[in-house]
Design a protein that fits this description.
mainly alpha, Serine Threonine Protein Phosphatase 5, Tetratricopeptide repeat, 3 domains, 21 helices, 70% helix
Amino acid sequence: MSSENQKKVNDLKSEGNKALETSDFEEAIKKYTEAIALDPENHVLYSNRSAALTKAARYLEALGDADKTIEIKPDWAKGFSRKGTALCYLNRYEEAASVFMEGLKIDPENAQLKNGLEDAQSKLSGPSGSQPLGNPFAAPDIMQRLEANPKTREYLKQPDYRMMIQLLQQNPNSLQSFQDPRIIQTLGVLLGFDLEQKQADASEDKDTEAMPEQTSMPSQRSNSNSQNHSNSVPENQPNSQAQEEKLKGNEAYKKKDFDTAIVHYDKAIELDPKDITFRNNKAAVYFEMKEYDKCIETSEEAINIGRENRADYTLIAKALARAGKAFMKKEDNESALRYLNKSLSEHRNPEIQKIVQVVSLAIRLKKRTY
């Protein structure tokens, strides 16, 4: 990083700290976010933004930043303190206690971690000190609600599914339940939303998506600079040939001609490798094809290239969310939760917040069965 950019980062961090001290949390978040854009591997910036997000009652986003802090610097106890605090505010006390204990392995005398652990453990009042947990399957109208949803209505025609629901109604801890993806889908229905959203997920990046180079590149280019280079193509101008290939890919997708769609997205990537929209779309097609490993791999490429080129944070958030959903399909809920929380740290999406709640619940219930 250049000395000029380092100075900008330090100034923005100081401004964020001052805003935090005066309880201007949104301003603090803004300043830390601007600093992170310049220095995306600075663990202190994510830690500070996590603190500001917690103060602003944006706990899921705070959790995402805490996870990022730990990812960048796993031997730093404060990251665990940030994560445990966010989990406590989300009433996820079992997870919080575990995180505080992990932090204490690094810094056994850390007062914040000790106090956090004590607070989290004091909230655990379920069996054997576990966290009380409501049974979403115990609603009296559960069968009517499952009949009203097209997907679960089909599930109800399957005897083994009905048996699982009956068991869960009686005891949510009785099933090795979350080995069956139908139960995850059912949780989404009971909590009021469709977890899969296949059509929306696979098409969300299509014609309506903004071009990363238009939305994420620095806007401080001077008029004189653009005039001096009036005969050249501006750096942030979309590649028209690449856009044409994207449109062809979109049309192929709509016809369910997925192989052709991928061919066109690959051509678009070759023509304009910095625009992560094309990789996002390609990952969406792999998701629809149920090729989840390829979906995750392509999403990771989009994330890395997007960060290298300072792409629009919403596009990076989409790539992270799609990878998280692919991990859900692979029944790897721990990885799914990690990616979904990272997505929220980039962009607060209410639908992803709901999915995080479902996945967290799935993980907690599954742990109870062992």
